[in-house]
Amino acid sequence: MQKLIIKGKKVLSGEIKISGSKNASLPILAASILTKKTTLKNIPEVNDIFTMINLLKSIGFKCNFKKKDKSITISTNKFHTQNNVAPYRLVKTMRAGVLVLGPMLNKFRKAKVSLPGGCAIGSRPVDLHLMALKKLGAKIKIKNGYIHAKSDDGLKGAKISFSKISVGATENAILAAFGAKGKTVLSNCAVEPEIKDLIRYLNKIGGKITTKDRKIFINGVKKVKSISYRVMQDRIELGTYVIAASLVGKKIAFKNVEPNLIKTELKVLRKMGVKIKVTKNKILIFGNKQLKKIYLKTAPYPGFPTDLQAQIMVLMTQANGVSKISENIFENRFMHVSELKRMGADITIKNNQAVIRGPTHLSGAEVMATDLRASVSLVLAALIADNRTIINRIYHLDRGYENLEKKLKFCKANIKRV
Q1: How many domains would you assign to the chain?
Q2: In this structure, what CATH number is given to the domain that contains residue 257?
Q3: What is the pLDDT of residues 346-399, one digit of tens each?
Q4: Active site residue 411
Q5: Which of these is catalytic: 63, 119, 189, 411?
Q6: pTM for the full model?
Q7: H helix intervals, 249-326
């Protein structure tokens, strides 16, 4: 099993290039089921993407991934050659696998999709997904770990209000309503940039989707175009490396980026005392050893993202005073804390709040990744720790970060995979 070995206390400088968005690519790949042919560009080479590609292949689609230009072309033949099952062996490792449910119902009027897996950061049930599909007219049963769904007469537009904000349920409802007869109105929706990217893609292939605040209006369509589309950059990767630069960077540049994607995060870092220079498509982070305490809570976009909670916690360990962070999205997303404490962090957990006392001296240790974002938080901690840190179970890391070692090595980090 592969490990990362990191020797800390090296000051980093240079430039980090940001990859295409994993969280935008996955629902758009699911949406490609609706088309005869789609070419997607700026696709990151991470394991979750390859799992989704294998899922599309198992359904019956041809997928041609070109490593050189990070593009994939997805095409289909006549419907009768298709398979309407998304198997457990593929969906078990990745939450986004359930997103094929909506487009499969549209195209084949039936679907059998395994209940999803992914990181062990909370229950994340699919009840909101299924509620939306039922409102659109799908008949659904759960049997032997699979969702069995059908819509013999096709899906029909409906008014759907989510009881809580859910990115995945919003995406699945959009994908299902895309080809439903009539008009659908979704209320209390997630409005993450990745959802807006999905809507842009769907409108390019012929969709009629508009948004206002947390409402999404969808007029169902049947005619679909074959297109080429460039996926947005990964704002969570950008946020992760910006936090890394705030920890150990002398001067690190991020070029050809969209600073507004991490507007909230940059505001938080400035409050903590990080020196930041932002231009139209460039972010510069300068080192600062005098970090200030801060109180934070995770929230749906445009709030502070739960996917950056573990990373910002590492930065809090180096701030002067007592910082606090409340996790309001997932109930089990403090699993990295025990590993950070093994490295010397002073963190206590009470209910959904972490209290971090700093600045603390971190020492290298052998640690274990528990989920995707937790694994990268250990990388950040290792960069500032004395001596050597060994990070086990880095397959979590490979689900969502492309060429992490190469990008950090380019900025002079001492990191290797064994």
Answers
A1: 2
A2: 3.65.10.10
A3: 999 998 999 999 999 999 999 998 887 788 999 999 999 999 999 999 988 998
A4: no
A5: 119
A6: 0.94
A7: 263-271, 309-316
